[in-house]
């Protein structure tokens, strides 16, 4: 296994060290200074997450107001290091109950040290699963010192958890009401030219599950994906239903999914861990349903005036609606005055990001709100600098809509005792980097 | 700024930002706001405008781009109220630079303010113009500013600013002072009582005189007066004294201005100035207070610079050096640093070097200072002050220091030590010792140049070779040696170890085994050198040693398959050559002498990065190499004080042991004597001119070393010149030309040298010029040995070569001065372009005391020097002879009036011209057939054939036939031989038979035409 980290630092935005842990001796103690000098105080901050300074590699990531910096001196596996950071943050979040920021780190530093010792050894990542770690790192965050129940839990058996047949699920769980929640969350990445042709488009999706099931249930999930459907039709020797089938790329499953059965029968069957987990991830590049179309016209009238007209068209079903739509229309740096006319929502000029920001809280399907703005520019000394026209950016959430068209066909639960279960399915589509050139 | 709440809120917002990102967001927001406000149609109230422009300035000062709002800032300048005007001026001068178009809009407003009555506005305007005024401002505002500066009604505050403003305008456009009588007005300005105005005006004056001092002579006495006033601390208001020092800034500036005048002629002014300088020098001491120290030292160092510039009396100089000596002994590192740096600068002034030498011990201690910058300064100073007398001490000190020196300094240190050793070596073996020690101690820091150089010296000096070989053997015998040492040793032992062969432990076998031990430890760059060394050792082994041979062949065999191409090639070639046997001796013959070239070390030292003080040290070195150019430009009387060190860098000064063993006490005595002499003279002269007149000849007396010598060695002194020299100290002797009689016959010496390659070319009571020549094809290398026979230096030495058309002659640098009893070598490169009998002439002149000697000497670079004898067999001779038929390639002439001599003698004579007699080619015993090869650039190697038919009956006539592939060559060679046969060459005088009377020759009767006819019949 490759080395992931020689040292890990948690810094606040000013560059002060909140917590650090050295795993190996091959990096010096003044690494933070180097990071501060060469990365944080330069314009490069945020442009490239991997930088090499004086023989050491710095991998950094910003999470809310904390920089997590990994320093390695050897030829490390960068992906492994970033995965480690992401997983560690998820772990911390599940320990603190939600937020991961400077204050949370300050309040839980003892716990964090304990966890850091556990999740990495001599630079090699170890078990990062919150369920298992919580069994034997029992100290809980400050969030719930009084809500912790009396010690009626079974004596944790760490060895069994790690080595057992179903390492991710405890035995003997009992729920009064057996429920399964299944969310399909997709984010759409788009780059569209000003003419409306799609330059780049893909969807990354994940299926999140929340299980409250007794015993050792066996679940089986059916989707309208191409391989599964074809296999099914083969097995049942009847022609596939004429419906939309989705081709999934890069499918990744949670470790609980039985891969042998997936390979032979192309069905997703698994014994779920208790609580919340991510069942699978996938990517789709073909046949994406774009939720919005943006038609911008931006005219520069002389040196000091601009006219901006933007029409946004929602192309999903009329019964559905998008939430939290934000459209950011870039304007030149020397923008002085703006005046707007919008058919819905509100718009304003934000000087700090040099954008006209148009917000629509609730955006019904099959509508076409427009914005027209007049922008006045101030004359500057440096005339040469022409405006680069950065793309329009968009943020949104569309519930009960999947850009890929993925649907859950069935979710079967089978348990020895044969209890009834309630299954809940939700869909949501979000904007990833949704950009339209203008 | 009171009451601008928005501004203070904004500033406190910025200050409260947690990080840079927040700050940027806040600033962008504010900039957006400001843009919005400026764009407001309704316009802004002056208050708002002022507030936003202040904000812009604040943002700009935080480092953000502010590329708008300049219009607003400029428009504020014309506001009627002070607060707005102030912000307008300030922001404009911060945000805009002189090339901005916006500034044009402001010129008129600014002018109105300047000519207006309001003093505050005048100040604001002048300050802004003084900061960002450009050419256009200079053109339109200069007269107004000048008026303000000169006006008597203005307050000093305004005039002060006007002076500085004018300075800026002058820098932008030097024409602004091209006003009639400006120099006089400038002089008037210097009469100003107010020190503030005076300081500003002085800044202006410094700029003016730096460009053109001629126009401002009238200011000079005034400057001195100001200095006098300050130094006496008369009438200096309390606010202009800084820690008790009256306006140090003005003092420094005034002294700086004075340095731009080449000299001070008025004796009164000069005396006053020197009194002031004396006062400054006396009054400065190291005190506790840092600020006071800084101020007083600033003044002091400027005074030192002025003293150096003005070429003050020796006494004052020595006082300066003494002061600096005190400085370098102080504990405070800054002061020590300044002391050393200024001492290095002082080296530029000729007289003081001896005084500086007195502090040598202290300087050497500074080499061990904990502060690296001080160590560097000390090193520079040592480097700069080194000359023949102290080279040994200094270099040894540097060598000692090398082992403990900082790693960062070692390279520089070793380079400098190598240069000094090369330049001032009293004898060459010492030089070799030093360099070998250097390599031994700091091998890693020795660049290749250094060891190349030592190899060059060893190769070029025959007498050095055995010594060097023995020495490197000693070093390489040690168990662990540096690779560079292995390289040097391998080279030198390969070339010259056979010279040691008789010594114990130096048999070829032993040398080989010592070298071979090092082979496994060296890198691929050294192995080729080792291989060459092996081949040479093998070649020199006489009688051949089978065992050694098989060992070496085994090594070559092994490296024949080496992956490194260079090593492989050498191994293969050497192996093949070794097996050739006899041919090896020719191919692996000793390396030829290297052509003299400028030391690459010195070149390197010149190119290397250097700061001012170091530069002065390097410059000093450079000047020592060429001439005392400095002395001439600075109008210091050309004296011999620098002479002991001013030697061309190529030629090693071979100083007789007398000088090197001279003890310090005698030097000191000489110094005190000199000092005594000059102080005796001092009070007498009424004017500075006279003073320098008297000092002039005094200085010609030469360096103290020389005078001491002349005293000490009065007995051994050659002609009692020393008396004459001493006399010249007071009496100015008229220059005499060529009153010196040469010793020996110049003509004879020349003829002898035509046949020999070394000998004396010229000699007179003062100098002996020896010559040593080497010829190789059409190239020749002559070395002139200029030997000073006296105990006083020869100065103004000049040697000019007047070459004939066919020769290209390059004379390396001839030093201006030849130190007493020293010999200087001047190498001379000769290239023969085409055949001709013309002779090069050396125009040599020197000055001894006041005697100017000039001689013109023929250089023995004659035709026969480019001949190389060649043995031609009959099979080669006849086809050649036949192929060259008739004029102009073949010329025949009957020569009459030949000095009668027997045939063998004639043969001898010819072979002394490098013309080889080929016996047996001509059946007639009375005929001579000879051949030779002539080398020149145009003809390359050209075979020449000679046939001389003598008449046994009449020895005074003969027939000569010459043939070669080049018509000029044939003609020239014929004429040359004819000249030699007719005239009476001196060379054959030495062999006994030359004295034989012509009548004594036996004259067998043979028909004169006979032999010719026979040969002609045979050949044609």
TrEMBL record, chain A:
Its membrane topology: Peripheral membrane protein
Any Pfam family the entry gives: Adap_comp_sub
Residues annotated as domain MHD: 177-437
Position of the signal peptide: none
Localization terms from the record: Cell membrane; Membrane, Coated pit
Keywords from the named record: Cell membrane, Coated pit, Endocytosis, Membrane, Protein transport, Transport
Subcellular location, principal: membrane
UniProt superkingdom: Eukaryota
UniProt similarity note: Belongs to the adaptor complexes medium subunit family.
Annotated PANTHER family: AP COMPLEX SUBUNIT MU
Protein name: MHD domain-containing protein
Organism: Hibiscus sabdariffa (roselle)
Lineage of the organism: Eukaryota, Viridiplantae, Streptophyta, Embryophyta, Tracheophyta
Automatic annotation (TrEMBL), chain B:
Disordered: annotated segments: 661-688, 986-1020
Membrane topology listed for this record: Peripheral membrane protein
UniProt domain Clathrin adaptor alpha/beta/gamma-adaptin appendage Ig-like subdomain: residue ranges: 751-860
UniProt keywords, alphabetically: Coated pit, Endocytosis, Membrane, Protein transport, Transport
Domain of life: Eukaryota
Polar residues: bias regions: 661-678
Family label: Belongs to the adaptor complexes large subunit family.
Subunit structure: Adaptor protein complex 2 (AP-2) is a heterotetramer composed of two large adaptins (alpha-type and beta-type subunits), a medium adaptin (mu-type subunit) and a small adaptin (sigma-type subunit).
Protein name (Swiss-Prot/TrEMBL): AP-2 complex subunit alpha
Upper taxonomic lineage: Eukaryota, Viridiplantae, Streptophyta, Embryophyta, Tracheophyta
